[in-house]
Amino acid sequence: MTISTQSRDFRPSRRHILAGSAAAAGVFSFGFSIPALAQQAGVPEINAWVVVHPDDKVVIRIARSEMGQGTLTGLAQLVAEELNCDWAKVTTEYPTPGQNVARNRVWGNFSTGGSRGIRESHDYVRKGGAAARMMLIQAAANEWKVPAAECSAEKSVITHKTSGRSVRYGEVAAAAAKLDAPKDVPLKDPKDWTIAGKALPRLDTADKTNGKKIYGMDFKLPGMLNAAIKDCPVFGGKVKSFDAAKVKGMPGVKHVLSVGDSAVTVVAETWWQAKTALDALPIEWDEGPHAQVSSESIAAWLKEGLDAPEAVVGNQNGDAKAALAGAARVYEATYSYPFQNHACMEVMNATALYTPEKCEVWTPTQNGEAALAATAEASGLPLAKCEAYKIDLGGGFGRRGAVHDWVRQVVAIAKQIPGTPVKLIWSREEDMLHGRFHPITQCKMKAALDKDGNVTGLHMRISGQSIVAGIFPQTIQNGRDPAVFQGLNAPGPEASIGYSFPNLLIDHAMRNPHVPPGFWRGVNLNQNTVYLESFIDEIAHETGKDPLEFRRSLMKSHPKHLAVLNAAAERAGWGKPLPDGVFRGICQTMGFGSYVAAVAEVSVSADGKLTIHRIVAATDPGHAVNPAQIERQVEGSFVYGLSAALYGEITIKGGRVEQENFDTYEVMRLEAMPKVETVIVPSGGFWGGVGEPTIAVAAPAVLNAIFAATGKRIRSLPLKNSDLKKA
Prior knowledge:
The chain contains 18 helices and 27 strands.
């Protein structure tokens, strides 16, 4: 295929911290105030979320991580909305996970992934802003000796309606901070929003463009040394030996050290000196039991699972097997989805300073509490003697969330050089070889059809990897990983599948290769949407039905799914003429609490050159906190989703990853990006995510359009491996 260019004293485990933070996520004490974070120069906090300076500058605390998705601005908008402050004077800061634990997790969950930043914290952050506003008003009312009900606040100014007296937030902040927090904290109706719900500029843009923003790789401490590292290239392998004497005399080299039993590091004055010496260091690896594993052997193992008698049910109704046995016709197809790398532009990195009294880490992380737990475990110190400082991320996509291997490494290095700050930066090759990869799966689908082409039963068998088994195996119950069925869940609180079938069976034969899995942006929704939406499209064409109308016929009991599908189709002009040689594909799904759909317009030349001209994407996230940022998120999700669809593939040879840099692991380039049009249709009543859902509709929309253009069904990604010449 070618692509054309186009216009705490105990020592908890990391999992203990994560489970505890999740359990505490809904329990907060808005008035709990101790000397901590932003009490610079005697400036007290109103509550955990809001600090007001005498000059009316408002500092809003953000517990979630900013990694380009805009959650920092969106959460600040929600707090500011309820605070009724002057948005022009709003700034933000991160509380630390150590402070969060010390304060009984007043800021709730620090985990930023699964598009949860706003959708799982909107209620308590809004209450934080509202409580602060009520305390500021009460402080002013106390000073004036009037009822608080006679006072109102707007743009950081409190006014007494009867007398006309007014006072700025900064003038009463110190008094407000001494008050008890209100017990009843009502929130505004979203229809009355004036800050939230508006397309306000991001708060972090200026610092990113003028160079003021500091990322992990920029971070420096006095006397800091730099480390480069190599881990055994075969997962599960170890270091057999290395000859440190060969490189100890090289420029800048200070230390050559083992890191655990599988890695070696060189520590030098500069990172380049460290890497140069590391590249020259003779290392002999014990590659372990997986040195003969290949992509082909993994694929064959997964293929066996497609027909294996043992499988765990994820969703079922009726009797799909009986429906298939009695069908007038059975239509079948098998799809596959590869390993993929997160490929963050900023490689894994962290800085650590260890002493026997304290261990501190500065790192880009999607979960500060997980980073703190990793620091405590690696250092061997009590949690109360550790701290992790969160830095903005140069890309996360799930890689910097559940697993903090690089944090453990830098702490292990720093522990061998106590009192000296050490910054560890992975090389791009190390980052590619030692990712936590998107899980590999295959899927066989069988549809039972009656004589009129109606679907009377559907069986989806997924064979392949479980992320949860690889990262949180203690949560697997009776062999079932619920995350495997993302996008395919039954009706109910976690409903996601948008179609009704009289007989349905969706099951999973777990097959876990030695390649470590991770939560990759969009996670299992990506491949599950490819499987189901491509197969639905196949049945539509096979039975001579319009793909849109066929979907509509299966979605009568799924109004929200149907609404976004219709919105995308209407904006794209489904059914209306297109330029010669241009064809459309359509799909829909639900994930991360939101409903999404997409239409792709593509052309394929006679020699198989694919051009993606246009993508129309509709999304219903319930509430739109910042419509402009939603548009940017959707557009960015298609960069990621199309990169995966067109190029994203990690292959295994000799037990190791073959792709080591961007020359062999391509990503979407600006010149090849299609026009992306976003249709936001917030229906209210729920809070959905934005950053991930639309990734899942990128590939199937394009795949279905390619079939319309060529008559060829592509059932294995990435597209770069396919011949798109017309059938």
